[in-house]
Amino acid sequence: MVKPLRIAFVEWPETLSMDHPMWPGLKDSVTTAHPDILLTNELPFGPWLADAAVFSRDEAQRSLRAHDKGMEALIDLGLPAVISSRPVWNGERLANEAFVLENGVTRPLHRKQYFPNEPGWFESEWYAGDCSGFNVAEVLGIKVGVLVCTEAMFNERARHYGKQKASLIVIPRASGTEIAPWKIAGAMASLVSGAYVVSSNRVGLSAGGTNFGGRGFAYAPQGQLLTVTEQSDPVKTFDFDPNLPTLAQRSYPCYVPELEPPA
Asked: What is the pLDDT of residue 82?
């Protein structure tokens, strides 16, 4: 039987590293919260690559090094599980790979498949998808689905995770200052999947001028907003009740069958 869990989510600053002046306070706030699972924002360490419209192998390597070093920071938190994302090589481009650090062991969960291509978010120039799909993974005994940032806008993916009996959907993101569309996406994801939905976001201004808006959020099954982060309170938690997703997935609209499940 799955026990109740405490889940934490954050808004962490642009160019984060263990040497960042905010890191000691952020670390203390996370460890004080004593979460079982921490969700970070998308690609949390080092500068934001997708400011630039042209791929640079040198900058890609710089991001890989920043996230390798950042892994030390995540391990140092000493939590049962941390879910985050990192760059890894994928042919001549990078992949944005969500992973879990669980009881000191790192394993991949999902690779981002949907990429924007506009000022501040030239992600399709830097990252490439693959055929790895959207499948649940087990973390601390619960089924977890991952939607990396833009993927949250494709509601059929959240519904498909619900059909796989995901009880938690995580959305690590690096989005701008307009929060309303993301909260709508989070609420709908929880409604159509029957799962808890939690999202962490980057915050601050990048060197290229991209303004990240923070405001991580959490929804209980059936679209109930639980809480939202802010700059004065960048770490929030909620208590995960494993019974609620089970009940929600038997209720409307989750019980309505899919006509053609997405590939």
From this structure: 98
List, in order, residues 6 or more apart from 82 with CB less than 8 Å away: 37, 38, 39, 40, 74, 100, 101, 102
Condensed to tens digits (0 to 9), the pLDDT of residues 235-261 reads 999 999 999 999 999 999 999 987 775
Is the pTM above the cut of 0.85? yes
Three-state DSSP at 112 gives coil
Q: Is 109:83 a contact under the CB 8 Å cutoff?
A: yes
Query: What does 42-59 look like in DSSP terms, one character per residue?
Result: SS-BS--GGGSSS--HHH
Under a CB-based contact definition with an 8 Å cutoff, are residues 151 and 175 in contact? Answer: no
Tokens of 14: 């642009």
> 235-240 and 93-102 as β-strands: parallel, antiparallel, unpaired?
unpaired
Q: How far is CA 115 from CA 33, 126, 128, 154, 249, in A?
A: 33, 9, 8, 12, 29
What is the topology classification, in CATH, of domain 5-248?
Nitrilase/N-carbamoyl-D-aminoacid amidohydrolase (3.60.110)
pLDDT in tens, 142-161: 999 999 999 999 999 999 99
Q: Could you state, in order of their start, the residue ranges of all structural domains in the chain? A: 5-248
Token pair for residue 180? 């309303």
